[in-house]
Amino acid sequence: MRQYKIFAHPSGLVETVKQGWSWPGFFFTWIWALIKSLWSVGLIAFGVQLLVSYDPALSSIVGLVVMIVFGANGNDWREKDLVSKGYVVKGIQMAGNSSEAIAGHLNSARSE
């Protein structure tokens, strides 16, 4: 079971953000950021990796640092992005995956 923070938008959309380390952010860095609409973070990371790509040693070191930064901060960046888009934190749900977290949240909201 993982802990998910539930975000709701006034339009009715619901999103989840897993708490803690972001494995997709770690492994896919700027690609993950662009998929999640974190445009500035993704483009900056891509630019940095492109700039150091001429030197294999420097590229490896910078690449590893970028991966660690994305793993450690990726989910926090997503949360801030959702809030900036008008989403509101509705709670925290323990679940096996994002879909189960949303379902659990909706079930608990109906019973209140």
Outline the structure in words.
The chain starts with a strand and ends with a helix. It has a three-stranded antiparallel beta sheet with strand order 2-1-3. Helices cover 61% and strands 18% of the residues. The chain is built from four helices and three strands, in the order ββαααβα. The relative contact order is 0.23. α1 (23-35) crosses α2 (39-51) and α1 crosses α3. The chain has one domain (2-110). By secondary structure, the chain is of the alpha+beta class.
State Rg: 16 Å
Q: Which structural category do the helix and sheet elements fall into?
A: alpha+beta
Report strand %. 15-25%
Reading the helices and strands in chain order gives EEHHHEH
Q: How are strands sequenced across the largest beta sheet?
A: 2-1-3
Low-confidence stretches: none
First-residue to last-residue Cα separation: 23 Å
- How confident is the prediction overall: mean pLDDT? 95
**Tally of domains:** 1
How many helices? The count is: 4
Shape type = elongated
Helix fraction, binned, reads: 55-70%
List keywords for this structure.
112 residues; alpha+beta; three-stranded antiparallel sheet; 61% helix
